[in-house]
Amino acid sequence: YHRCGGCGKKQEFINSGKFRVNANGNKVDVWLIYRCRKCKHSWNMVIFERVRPQKIPQKLYDLFLCNDEDTACMYGNDISFLRRNNAEIKR
Q: Which of 38, 42, 50, 51 has most Cβ atoms within 10 angstroms of its Cβ?
């Protein structure tokens, strides 16, 4: 759960299974995209921020680029990753 920028309320967000990789000069950012269950507003959860591409293992970087579903699921089930991104976890 997270406060939605579209709805303005705390909503459940769903793992889209998609990554966003953005190059900024000689550094990259990698996010896992979540969508609000209600309005589909996106929330990009940080996996890597402002790192040199060489710091990311090539195989993992390729998995991000091809939106590998298993990799998205792995991050989506990682409680420490979710907490680092200020997700509220309800069970």
A: 42
